[in-house]
Write the structure tokens for this entry.
Amino acid sequence: MIVSLPGTVVKREGRNGGEYPWFRSVGRVECLAMILDYELATFIAIIAIVLVAGTVKATLGVGFALIATPLLLLVMDADEVVGFTVPLILLQDVIILTQMWRRVPWKSAAILAVPAVIIAPFAALLQTELDPDTLHITISLTIIGAGVVLLSGVKFTIKNETRALVVAGGISGGLFPLAGISGPPVALFLVNQRWEMTTMRAVLAAFLVVLEVVTIVTFALRGVVDGDSLALDAMMLPVLAVAVLISAIMLRSIDSNRYRKAVTGVIVSSAGLGLTSLIVNSL
């Protein structure tokens, strides 16, 4: 029953006199939110965003930053979002890589990683110098344009795939420190090349793990990733575990053709979500 008298604390008791299990769970979440200095509603919103973005990322290998960043900007400060999301993305790519390392085309992964690793530290130095709104608008419009073309069935003819991999890796290396977006340039290129689902997920994970480690080290030296952001990341580990379980179920019903369409669709719709978020924040 619920006992409420003027001047007393409301108690929520079950039939045997103990607290309801649901109330104990809410209390734990509220306690965690207080420790991290977030309001309960904000903390719950962060959990929901991470669950949705994490499920998409674990399933498709891309999409976490594109989905989570515009939504997190509604409940977190801009300077907190990148430091919070990058370690979570790394953790998910490590999980995917441990599951699929035997299927990684290591030569292609290396061709992607080398230019990305070279460019990423320099791009990180520009993070505080460039206007974030202009950057996100430019990136989102470019991604939407390329994605819509691919969804329409157009295939760009690329004669030298190795050279194109270098370019795609370099672009991702520049975008990840600047906007937290790393997978879409490479993913859209691989969709255009009609790569098979398993190979595509594997090479994305291998390439992104390298890029993310370099970026996180750079961010840690500059204070972007710190103890507070890592503490919030630690609270999200059970959420990511649930996301991995959901993705394992979803992957059973996805073939390569559906996978490529899903990757492109998520990238395009997420970029559109980012533009919408910018418009809402500017009002």
